[in-house]
Amino acid sequence: MSRQFTPSVLTANDLLEGDVIYLDPADRWVRELDRARLFTDARAAAEALDMAEGQQDRLVGAYLAPAIAAPEGPQPGHFREAFRAQGPSNYAHGKQAQA
Amino acid sequence: MYTYTEFDHDFLATRNAQFRAQVERRLSGALTEDEFKPLRLMNGLYLQLHAYMLRVAIPYGTLSSAQMRKLADVADRWDKGYGHFTTRQNIQFNWPRLRDVPDMLDALAEAGLHAIQTSGNCVRNVTADHFAGAAADEIADPRPVAELLRQWSTDHPEFQFLPRKFKIAITGSPRDRAATRAHDIGLRMVTQQGVPGFEVSVGGGLGRTPFIGQVLTPFLPEADLLPYVEAILSAYNSYGRRDNKYKARIKIMVQELGVDEVRARVDRRFNALRAEWKGADRAILRDLQAEFAPPAFRTTNTGAYDDARQNDPVFRSWTETNLHPHRAAGYAIVTVSLKAHGATPGDATATQMRTLADLAESYGHSELRISHEQNVILPHVHKSDLPALHARLRAEGLATANIGLISDIIACPGMDYCALATARSIPVAQDIAQHFAARELDIGAMKIKISGCINACGHHHLGHIGILGLDRAGVENYQITLGGDATEAAALGQRTGPGFAHDQVIPALDRLMNAYLALRDGPSETFIDTLRRLGHAPFKAALYERDEDARAA
To answer: How many domains does chain A divide into?
Structure first.
């Protein structure tokens, strides 16, 4: 039996800015985790990852990150993803400054 | 101080132009990330959690006022107005944009600064005693040798693709303030019948398999230094394990072969190549020694200093922690703490950098140093200038009197920035510094070092108390080690037992400090001395004492 797929978002870093980006349901790259598409199906997630790996001119290091469904949109499934979605905890820099 | 020659400037300009073209090719899509990554790393450019990070070398920790101002300008213009000084005597800018990095490198080059070999499997930034050229206990200034090593290792064709990264540290003093035994090669100046040379240790390193370096030779004549270092690198380059990055450092070679076999291989190589060194290195070293000639020290009375110490308890307290003995009469070495209680260890704002540059110009022969302990040093200040200097530092929030105390913590960037981290370091350091601030003079000499992953950039193995942040089933967890030592009595700390959740670190350290204060043989017995006298058992017992026991006690 194959392992159950962990719900995930597709994420990467923007090539120019280095900032964290997510794939949204319309296949656009957005900056906010809660606007990301939450993949619950392994095959769809793998196809999206393949597509992202073909976008070398746009992004770096695409991967599937665990996420949790919530009414306001996907939430981080691991504390590392929480920092990526928000920014560092010592200064109000990064995404939290733009919110 | 060393000033760049025309050759250096041309070399850097060429290198920066190459990198600019590489960035353009990456942006145009001509280079894939896999092709571009090794090129950017060779030029100090990482991609971290939130952004790119540019790591700029501060060779052997020495900066001029002009260079410090340049770092401030770069921080203001292309970053977020601050920089992070690291345990490798580098500065990291956490928020550059890829398109701007070539301009940043050109700006840095104007001041004789670069990011070459701050990453990759090559000889990294050569680090040194941050009191070099000033310390009272020093045999000689090691920086001419360090600069010789920098020039020799920069773009050295044989050593650009080593099995793994390679770190060299050097001290000119029998006291080791550069953690030399935790480096791939550690060079500690010693004398034999009045002649200076080096004790050479090899195979030290921290990370997932930590080792204290072993002595390869107790005395190497200074004249043989460069050919001998080349022989070590050559022997390592031939043997080093390229099949497994976790076994690729020279420390693993030393463990696998034994230090005697490594010595035999190095000696064979040394004997084969020694004759090829015809003395050009010696001529260059002589020129470098002239460049590092000490400044013209004044002979003035220190009355103003003595008066201020008498009359100003804040000043006196600062002089007791932040000054170290200077080789010249009437002078002191000033350490400016970048560890204000609650601040991020090693961070300096552009404004603070400019203040420090100005103060070095006014009072310290325009010289600054960055320590691996993430502080800034003004190495040559006449004591009569200290009251005025202290007043300026106070006005800028730079007069924290905590050097060597519990709040003078080394911490890596951890998961707040680093893509490799498994937990955060910075908030742990902030919490400890604030929590113990009121008791830190009572607690006395203490080295706490925090890493946010097993790679140990925060030197946790060498802390009297080491803290290692890990990911335990999706939760930050902190392992504690005790008894590490970064000095000439180098030792690795021993793990105490299970780790602590983030919010349990402070209570655990509280129990540890209470135990120490109860067990010490008076205020003059430091934590590390008490630990050595009594062993780890009573401290472990305190750490893992259950809450009920604590309440009952």
So the answer is: 1
Residues B165 and B216 in one domain: yes
**Chain B contact probe: residue of A79, A80, A90 with most B CBs at under 10 A:** A90
| Chain B residue at shortest CA distance from A57 | B29
* pLDDT exceeds 80 at position A99: no
Contact A93/B at CB under 8 A? yes
Chain A hits for B96, Cβ within 8 Å: 18
Which range of residues forms the domain containing residue B383? Answer: 303-395
Residue A97 counted as domain residue: no
Question: Is A80–B424 a contact, with Cβ atoms under 8 angstroms apart?
Answer: no
Q: What is the pLDDT of residues A17-42, one digit of tens each?
A: 999 999 999 999 999 999 999 999 99
Q: Is residue B186 part of a domain?
A: yes
Q: Is A92 on the interface with B (CB under 8 A)?
A: no
User: Which residues in chain B are contacts of A88 at CB distance < 8 A?
Assistant: 50, 416-417, 426
User: Domain count of chain B?
Assistant: 4
B519 falls within a domain:
yes
Q: What is the chain A residue with the closest CA to B48?
A: A18
**Interface subset of A 46-65, CB within 8 angstroms of B:** 56-57, 60-61
Q: Which residue of B has its CA nearest to A54?
A: B32
**What are the structure tokens assigned to B505, written together?**
């670190």
A99 within domain boundaries: no
Residues of chain A contacting residue B97, judged by C-beta atoms under 8 Å apart: 16-18
Q: Establish if B33 belongs to a structural domain.
A: yes
d(CA B259, CA B255): 7
Q: What is the mean pLDDT, run by run of 10 residues, along chain B of 553 residues?
A: 95 98 96 96 97 98 98 98 98 98 98 96 97 97 98 96 97 96 97 93 97 98 96 97 94 97 98 96 96 95 96 98 98 98 98 98 98 98 98 96 98 98 98 98 98 98 98 97 97 97 98 98 97 98 73 45
Same domain, residue pair B149 and B89: no
The CATH number of whichever domain residue B325 belongs to comes to 3.90.480.20
Closest residue by Cα to residue B421 from A86, A78, A80, A96: A80
Q: Is residue A3 part of a domain?
A: no
**B32, B37, B49, B101: best to mutate for the A interface, most A CBs within 10 A:** B49
CA angle, corner A82, sides to B507 and A49, nearest 5?
145
Only one residue has tokens 């949109």, namely A73
Residue A28 included in any domain: yes
Of A60, A61, A78, the CB nearest to B474: A78
Question: Among B335, B362, B395, which residue terminates a domain?
Answer: B395
| The predicted structure's pLDDT at residue B130 | 98
Largest CA distance in chain A: 46
Q: Which two tokens stand for residue B281?
A: 């290195």
pLDDT at A4: 87
**Backbone torsions φ then ψ of B391, nearest 5 degrees:** -60, -40
Contacts of B84 (CB under 8 A, 6+ apart): B91, B92, B93, B94, B344, B346, B347, B413
> In the predicted model, what is the mean pLDDT of residues A68-92?
97
pLDDT for A1: 44
**What confidence score (pLDDT) does residue B550 get?**
47
Determine the distance in angstroms separating the CA of A91 from the nearest CA of chain B, rounded to an integer: 9
How many whole angstroms separate alpha carbon B260 and alpha carbon B510? 45
Residues B307 and B287 in one domain: no
Burial class of residue B361, CB neighbours in 10 A (0-12, 13-18, 19+)? middle
* Structural domain span for residue A59: 8-90
Confidence (pLDDT) at B533: 98
